[in-house]
Each structure stands twice: as C-alpha cells, then as structure tokens.
C-alpha cells in the first residue's frame, strides 16, 4: 500500500540548480551499510518516505530504518536487534507509519520446535522512531510453527496486520521441498494491533493458502483489501483477493482465473496498490506453461477485476511490486531480462485505458534468491525504488528516485 507526498520537485534545485535539466533517474546515497538486505518502503500520511532493512554481522541481525529528507536519507536508526531472528530472503521485515508520528515495525524470531518454527515480533514508536516499545506478538496460538509474510496497513491508533499462519500445519515445513503441509493447511489471518499493545480478536481471511508467497494489502474507503496466493485442494495456486467490508472479511476470489497447478510453492507473491476506487494488482504465474508477469485493475474498489494483461512473458523471475499514480495509471516493477538477456529490475507504466509505456530498466539485478524482492513506491510525480545489490558476493541495499513523467 502506498501514499503520496511532495518530494521530487523540492529535490531538483538542491541537486542540479536552476539551469540544467536533471536526469530522469537519480541514485541516492544509501543509508544501509554493507551486509544489508531485505528492504521495505512505505510512505506516511504526511508524505514521509520510510526505508527499512536488515543488517547482519556474524550471528546477529538488526532492523534499521531511515527517512528521506529532501535529497538524502537520514542517518540510520536501529529499531531492534537479536541473535535469534529468523532471516529469510523472501520474508522481509517492515516499518509502517501511522497517524502523525507513529511507526510500527515487525520482524521474525525463532521459536524452539523446528527450523521453520518462528513468531512475528512487533514494536511501536509514537515519537517518529526515537523510542520503541517492548516487542509483542500479534498471534496468540503459541504453536511452534510458521508465522510470517506479514503485510501491515495504518489505522488511527496502530496498524492492521495480515500474515501466513501455520498453527494448523503441525510444523516441520521445509521451504526447499514439496510444500504439502504435515497435517493441516497454512492459513491467512488478520488482527489489529494498537500502539499500546492491545490486540483485537484474530480472524481467518482464507483457510488454505500457499505456504510461503508474499501477501500485500491496500485500503479502499478505509477498509483493507488483501492479495495473496491461494491453494486449492487440487493444488491450483492462483492469485486471490479478499476485502473486508463493514468489518467482515468476504470470500476470497481469483483476480484472474488462471488454474495454475503446481505442487510446490513458487515463493513469488502478488502486489496491490490503490487510489480512491482504482485498484491495481500485479503477480507472477506459470499458468500458460511458461513464466509471465501479469497485471489487472479494478475501477470499482475491487468488486471486479479486468482480464489480465501480460507485461512480460520472456521468462521473467517475477518478484513484483506495484504503485498507483494519481492519473488513472500505475507502475509495475519486477525482475526480468533485458533484450540483451541480462537480469535486471524492470518497470512499466500501465494506464487504465490499456496504454502501456515502453519497458524500462531500473538497475541490473542478481538472479539468485539473495537479491530478494525489490520495492517500489510512488508519490507526487516521482518514484522511489530500493533493492539488494550484489557486488563481489557482498549485499547492500541501494535506492534510486525517478521522475515518472520523464522516465516512462
């Protein structure tokens, strides 16, 4: 879920003066040090762009964040650290702004039981990240199973959260093998967490979902709409959406009825963003027998989605993100291949009338899992992207800002 602010116009005089045309894409000095990865981007109601990431050193890890101020990132601040964290290339922590100065952060902590037993930890700040609360856990089952792939959205007094919950699986789930659950199914669950730690009752959004594909969420008229990869009894794993209306989650439905049958989780979840009643979804699939990145949009708040548009069917890797524009259009990013066959972070503008820009290259990318999931947000004529760069085997989070009207 993304929001908008005024930033790019304010940066131009600082970066280039008044007499020369600035480039359409600018690399910002990263606040993340070496051995950093797992970036996440979010924008506050006031327009502050927040970047979070994880830095590792020997056996310990730290979740850090920075705020974009004019032409540079603020000094990195530590939210939490530990030597018992569950670090996974696809299941990244996040920081979500809420209210005027509120921030909510989440990360994953190992739990005795098995390799894939871990809990969600959350902490809150009400002073812009100066001080953080004692961590709490939004789920209360206490089972030594998987809890992760979290998506947060802001509320007046905290955040709502959705996550993949393995309490019914019996644990022992191996991400590198067939993803059939040991006894039960992975579920998608929801709760509200106030900044003072108060927890709402949990609710089940979907009782059987793909075990380790990312989730995403956006707000329509103040109510959340979630996207995720479903899992049928016959191993159909299409991208689904589900909205909460009048305080109750509806029945999940496929964004596009593709009938992709796959015995294992592809670890390649969908992304969603919205503006007013317009909703855009992007996802990866191999439903046609080969890999492709697709998108669809809704103009009625997610009641119905248009037939899917294929953006890339030249064997892309996927790992999509999507960010809405204010003028009946949106951006989609993904890891794909250039005309020369090189792996790169690509992006394309999609208009609601079907018009598409030329596909653009944002940055070269490592095709391996270690490069993770790039992030994209849009605000007031500019976009910010963040990704994990691999240089001589060393990871570091990098960022760029793009003038949308001049780049796409």
Short description:
The chain is mostly beta strands and 408 residues long. It has helices at residues 8-16, 404-407, and strands at residues 25-28, 36-43, 49-57, 60-69, 72-73, 77-82, 94-98, 102-110, 118-125, 147-154, 158-165, 187-194, 203-206, 216-220, 223-229, 239-245, 248-249, 253-254, 271-275, 278-285, 292-298, 309-312, 318-324, 329-337, 343-351, 360-364, 375-379, 382-391, 394-403. β23 (318-324) and β24 (329-337) form a beta hairpin.
Please report the total strand number as a whole number: 29
Annotation field: number of helices = 2
Question: What is the first-to-last residue Cα distance?
Answer: 21 Å
Overall 3D form: globular
Radius of gyration: 20 Å
Can you summarize the main beta sheet?
5 strands, antiparallel
Mean pLDDT over all positions: 92
The structure class reads mainly beta
Low-confidence stretches: 12-18, 174-182
Fraction of residues in H or I helices: under 10%
Approximately what portion of the residues adopt beta-strand conformation? over 45%
Describe this structure in words.
With 408 residues, the chain is mostly beta strands. It is 3% helix and 47% strand. The chain has two helices and 29 strands. The strands form seven sheets. Strands 2, 3, 4, 5 and 6 form a five-stranded antiparallel sheet that branches. 49% of the residues are buried. About 4% of the residues have low confidence.
């Amino acid at each position: 879920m993304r929001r908008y602010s005024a930033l790019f116009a304010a940066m131009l005089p600082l970066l280039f003066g008044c007499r020369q045309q600035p480039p359409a894409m600018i690399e910002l000095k990263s606040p993340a040090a070496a051995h950093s990865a797992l970036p996440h981007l979010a924008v506050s109601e006031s327009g502050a762009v927040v970047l979070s990431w994880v830095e590792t050193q020997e056996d310990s890890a730290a979740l850090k964040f920075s705020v974009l101020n004019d032409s540079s990132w603020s000094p990195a601040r530590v939210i939490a650290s530990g030597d018992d964290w569950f670090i996974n290339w696809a299941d990244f922590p996040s920081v979500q702004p809420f209210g005027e100065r509120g921030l909510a952060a989440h990360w994953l902590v190992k739990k005795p039981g098995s390799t894939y037993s871990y809990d969600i930890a959350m902490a809150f700040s009400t002073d812009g990240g100066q001080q953080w609360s004692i961590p709490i856990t939004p789920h209360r089952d206490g089972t030594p199973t998987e809890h992760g792939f979290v998506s947060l959205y802001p509320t007046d007094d905290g955040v709502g959260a959705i996550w993949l919950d393995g309490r019914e699986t019996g644990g022992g789930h191996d991400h590198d093998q067939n993803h059939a659950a040991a006894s039960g199914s992975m579920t998608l669950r929801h709760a509200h967490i106030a900044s003072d730690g108060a927890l709402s009752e949990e609710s089940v959004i979907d009782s059987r979902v793909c075990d380790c594909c990312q989730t995403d969420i956006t707000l329509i008229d103040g109510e959340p709409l979630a996207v995720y990869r479903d899992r049928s009894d016959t191993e159909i794993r299409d991208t689904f959406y589900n909205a909460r209306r009048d305080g109750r989650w509806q029945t999940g439905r496929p964004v596009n009825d593709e009938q992709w049958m796959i015995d294992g989780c592809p670890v390649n979840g969908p992304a969603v963003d919205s503006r007013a009643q317009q909703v855009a979804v992007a996802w990866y699939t191999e439903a046609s027998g080969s890999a492709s990145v697709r998108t669809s949009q809704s103009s009625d708040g997610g009641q119905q989605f248009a037939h899917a548009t294929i953006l890339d069917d030249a064997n892309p890797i996927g790992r999509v993100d999507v960010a809405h524009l204010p003028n009946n259009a949106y951006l989609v990013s993904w890891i794909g291949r250039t005309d020369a066959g090189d792996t790169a972070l690509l992006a394309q503008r999609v208009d609601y009338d079907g018009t598409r820009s030329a596909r653009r290259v944002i940055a070269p990318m490592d095709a391996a899992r270690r490069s993770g999931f790039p992030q994209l947000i849009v605000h007031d004529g500019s976009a910010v992207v963040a990704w994990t760069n691999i240089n001589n085997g060393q990871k570091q989070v990098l960022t760029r800002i793009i003038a949308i009207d001049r780049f796409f």
